[in-house]
Design brief:
The complex is a heterodimer of chains A (207) and B (94). Chain A has 207 residues and is an alpha+beta fold. In chain A, the strands form two sheets. A seven-stranded mixed β-sheet of chain A has the order 1-12-2-8-11-10-9, covered by helices on one side. In chain A, strands 4-5-6-3-7 form a five-stranded antiparallel β-sheet, covered by helices on one side. In chain A, 41% of the residues are buried. Chain A has helices spanning 52-63, 99-107, 130-135, 181-192, and strands at residues 22-24, 32-36, 41-47, 73-75, 79-85, 88-93, 111-115, 120-126, 152-157, 160-166, 171-177, 197-199. Chain B is of the alpha+beta class and 94 residues long. Chain B has a single domain, classed as Folate-binding fold, CATH 3.30.2270.10. Chain B has helices spanning 34-43, 90-93; strands at residues 2-5, 9-12, 17-21, 51-57, 65-71, 77-82. Chain B starts with a strand and ends with a helix. Classes of the chains: A alpha+beta (207), B alpha+beta (94). Chains A and B meet through strand 9 of A and strand 2 of B. Chain A: This is Sarcosine oxidase subunit gamma. Chain A: It holds the Pfam family SoxG. Chain A: InterPro entries: SoxG, TrmE/GcvT-like.
Chain lengths: 207, 94
């Protein structure tokens, strides 16, 4: 039995609060498992004019994965580098506690660095039904045959600005502005209820 | 209507904001008839039927300005380039 049944999975959930962890929608094995990912250190790199290729090269060597100046995700065990615009890269790390300092030392005067850890919440979505859920809010083609692992896009989902990428065959990541976490979680629940959605809890304190 | 963003790929027009005519050139403020020319530059717009070039801003994507070729009769979009690609700022030229 799901905690929040399918006829109205958001009944009684205040719309200005992040819905509580639990099972939403149809009962049984959930088609989607959603959680906020444990990747707390985020920084934005903006290459100065004429330095985009050099910055991409330095990021590739430092993070051990091919970074190109296009909308792709370069993923390793500890870090992810996403192209969001020409010469712009979002860097996420699980281990670099002083990510802006590390990037400044790496890139020097070639780029402007801003800390973004408080700006975004990173959602992790897993399960076979994730593309069908995302399709309900997306304006772009996220069919798994078209949007391949490593592909990234900065776009809107359910009118909420997001940067999303496909981390593996069955795992998707979505970066959402922190103040829109409650609203975006409601979209996930309302759209995922027909497949069954399990929302995993998070450590209290932040957000 | 879908706009082929050079960085993001083809995107729905809802992700963009339009500024308008991309064919105008800012007049020389030192010219003797600068006042008249600035009036025309700010206020007067042609209303062409057919091929036109416009500035569009990809607000919900790469946040870059694009120069888009659109047919005003059919809304068919025949291309888009980044505004920065044809801009030559003093810093780029240096």
């Amino acid at each position: 039995m799901a905690d929040h049944p399918s006829h109205d999975p958001l009944a009684g959930v205040p719309f200005d609060r992040v819905p509580p962890a639990g099972a939403y929608g149809v009962t049984g094995e959930p088609g989607i498992v959603a959680s906020t990912a444990d990747e707390p250190f985020i920084a934005l790199v903006i290459a100065r004019n004429g330095h985009a290729a050099s910055v991409a090269g330095r990021l590739s060597r430092a993070f051990g994965s091919e970074v190109a100046d296009r909308p792709r995700a370069a993923i390793t065990a500890a870090s992810t580098v996403i192209g969001t615009a020409p010469g712009r890269f979002l860097v996420l790390s699980k281990t670099e506690t002083d990510l802006p300092g590390t990037l400044r030392a790496l890139l020097g005067a070639e780029a402007a660095i801003t800390e973004q850890g408080d700006a975004y919440v990173a959602f992790d979505l897993a399960g076979d039904k994730v593309p069908e859920l995302l399709a309900k809010g997306a304006l772009i083609d996220l069919d798994p045959r078209v949007f391949r692992p490593g592909d990234a896009a900065t776009t809107v989902l359910a009118h909420v600005g997001v940067t999303l990428w496909r981390a593996s065959e069955t795992s998707w990541r979505v970066l959402v502005a922190r103040s829109l976490e409650a609203s975006f979680t409601r979209f996930l629940i309302a759209s995922g209820a027909e497949f069954g959605l399990r929302l995993d809890g998070r450590a209290p304190g932040r957000g | 209507m879908r706009i082929p963003c050079p960085y993001c790929g083809e995107r729905d027009a809802h992700e963009f904001a339009i500024l308008g005519d991309a064919t105008l050139t800012r007049p020389d403020p030192a010219a003797p008839d600068a006042e008249t020319r600035f009036h025309d530059y700010v206020y007067l717009r042609d209303n062409p039927a057919g091929a036109h070039e416009e500035w569009w801003y990809h607000a919900n994507g790469c946040r870059q300005w694009l120069r888009v070729k659109r047919d005003t009769r059919t809304h068919a979009i025949s291309g888009a380039v980044a505004a920065r690609a044809d801009a030559t700022s003093p810093r780029d030229a240096a």
